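Workshop exercise sheet. Pairs work together: one partner reads the sequence aloud, the other fills in the structure field after running the prediction. Swap roles for the next sheet.
Pair: D.N. / O.F.
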Amino acid sequence: MKLNYLKSELIQNEFVEKTDGDINLIRKPIFAEIDVKNGGKIQCLSIPSPGSPYRKLNDFGIAKAINLDNYLFEVFKWFKG
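Structure field:
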C-alpha cells in the first residue's frame, strides 16, 4: 500500500471547496487515498459532525456558518460513491 499524496490533496481540496470551506484553514490533512497493490484504492475522509463540540469546523476548512444541507449532501455523496 502507498499513500497517493497528489490525489489525496486534490480530492481534499475539491471536497472543501464544495462545502464552501477554505483550504488555507486546514492544518492537518482530512483526506487520504491509498493505492493498493491489486489496483484498488482506499479512501479515508475525516469529517466533523456539524454540531460536535469536540471537533472544530475550522480544522476542516470551515470558518463561517455553513450551509448544512450542502455540507451533508457532499459528505454523503462521497460516502455513497
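Discussion prompt: The first helix runs from residue 5 to 18. What would you look at next?
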